[in-house]
From TrEMBL:
GO biological process: D-alanine biosynthetic process
Pathway annotation from the record: Amino-acid biosynthesis; D-alanine biosynthesis; D-alanine from L-alanine: step 1/1
GO cellular component: cytosol
Protein name: Alanine racemase
GO MF annotation list: alanine racemase activity; pyridoxal phosphate binding
Entry superkingdom: Bacteria
Taxonomy of the source species: Bacteria, Pseudomonadati, Pseudomonadota, Gammaproteobacteria, Pseudomonadales
Protein encoded by which gene: alr
Sequence ranges assigned to domain Alanine racemase C-terminal in this UniProt record: 233-357
Amino acid sequence: MRPLVATVDLSAIRHNYALAKRCAPQRQAFAVVKANAYGHGAREVVTALHDDADGFAVACLEEAAEVRALHASARILLLEGCFEASEYALAGQLRLDLVIQGAEQGEAFLAAGLDIPLNVWLKLDSGMHRLGFDPAALRAWHARLRNHPGVRELNLISHFACADERNHPLTEQQLESFLGLLDLDFDQRSLANSAAVLTIPAAHMDWLRPGIMLYGSTPLADLSAAELGLRPAMSLGAQLISLREVAVGESVGYGATWIAERPARIGTVSCGYADGYPRTAPAGTPVLVGGRRATLAGRVSMDMLAVDLSDLPEARVGDPVELWGAGLSVDEVARACGTLGYELLSKVTARVPRRYSH
């Protein structure tokens, strides 16, 4: 078997969910499990949180159906709403909490004439300008849906654009926009994503939406996961499968972009961009070999990558390699690659086997 595995610590996910709840006592929290639980495995994560989570949040009906099959009674928030008129009947059958983010969805919901009333969340575009009603349109839709027989609860939701950057002026503007609708008699409200859960108590409202923090990656630009008390859930581990000496002036990898400036010892690792490791990772990106730091040398290939082991003379074929995990934060690797931990975690591909610990 190819020596590459993503090991997922489900106890870390439970710990991180509990931390979110401790940040906002008496609030409830949707555990965000979209995109296959950010690459960790939705089935396993939902099962692990079955008795802890107040609800789950997903991006599409297919994800919602998977969660409902695992949990008969949990509230399941459909974050982007339905995409086609035919989906409303299934949303009703699955008893979803349904986001309505625009007039087209609102009209389609009314036309569906569902027999079972649903919890409906009107989405406010509070300043991100991606989805949602402007305040005036949202007030009009509140009036249309407040006493509609197809609506069990009428709720309010929005999403921050810059909560990861503390004290960003747009965050305060968005909060003010949301609070400007407090005169409307919504049953429940939800605004706080992971960053807001951790740093903006005024945004906690009734329901939290912890996402990336569940998986042990920081949602903040200036505080690490460890500083926030988060535990990493995924460790991506491979092996050294080859070692060789490379003379001064010789190159490594596609494009010959890495040139040895001294006699070099190069190791080949059983992980590449077809596994989800970013092809854009530059030379110098950190990895752990046998628990000690090394750096990438040359371009990432489809199935392999090379590391400079010149300062690790004890390294041997078969040594374990941690691409990220408990010993090397996914956020540090992401910064080296010019991206976010969200992307690295969610892009680990299906050919990488997941192993779970509890």
